[in-house]
Amino acid sequence: MISVKVEGPFGLDEPEELRQELGRETGLLWQLEPGPRKDTLSGGAALALLQTVLGAAVGAVAQAAAQVAVERAVDRWRGRRLDPPTVTVIVVRPPEDGDPDGSTALEEG
Questions:
Q1: Entry pTM
Q2: How many independent structural domains does the chain possess?
Q3: Are 9 and 87 in contact (CB under 8 A)?
């Protein structure tokens, strides 16, 4: 599973734009889960979570390629904003021997 968490001030339609960009870049279906918005009209914080699931049969190379594509899409999306929100990419791979949780996290912002 790959999760992209967006935190900070952003417009109402920006998470949907990121979802579409992630879909174009990765070829995967992404689900958007909007979080609470706190006084965003005056620059308050907002939260959105985008997730996609990689099939169990997907190998390490395909997972790595998907992660690179996600990071590229996030960088492009953030680059179009004057004050981009913080974006955290979390990749959870199926556990392997010696790796109990299989997760890695990358934070931009």
A1: 0.73
A2: 1
A3: no
